[in-house]
Amino acid sequence: MLDYITSYLSSNTTPGESGNVFWALVYIMVVFGGISVAVMAMNWLERKALAHFQIRLGPMRVGPHGLLQPIADAIKLMTKEDIIPAEADKFVFWIAPLIILCASFAVYIVVPFGPTHAITDLNIGVLFMLGVSSLSVLGVVMAGWASNSHYPLIGALRSSAQMVSYEVAMGMAVVSAILMTSLHGLGPYGVSAASSGTGTLSMIGIVQAQNEQHVWFLFKFFPLGFIAFGIFAIAMVAETNRAPFDLPEAESELTAGFHTEYSGLRWSLFMLGEYAAMIAVSSIAVTLWLGGWYRPFPNSLTGDTWDLVFSLFPGLVFLGLAAIAFLGVRRMPKHPYFRVQTIGLAGFGAVLGLIGLILFVPPVRDRIQDIFWFVAKVAGFMYLYIWYRATFPRYRFDQLMKVGWKVLLPIGIGVLILTAILGVVL
Amino acid sequence: MQQAVQPGMQPVATTFFFYLLSGFTLLSGVFVITRKSPVHSALALIFGLLSQAGLYLMLYAPFVAGVQIILYAGGIMVLFLFVIMLVNLERSQREEQFNGQWVVGLLAAIALGGLFMTVYVKGKSLFPYRIAQPVENTNTQQIGLMLYGQYMFAFEIASLLLLVAIIGAVVMAKKRI
Amino acid sequence: MAPIGTLHYLVVAAALFILGVIGVLTRRNVVIILMSIELILNAVNLNLVAFSRLWGLHGQVFAIFVITDAAAEAAVGLGILIAFFRNKETVNVDEIDLLKW
Question: How many CB pairs under 8 A join B and C?
Answer without folding.
Answer: 237
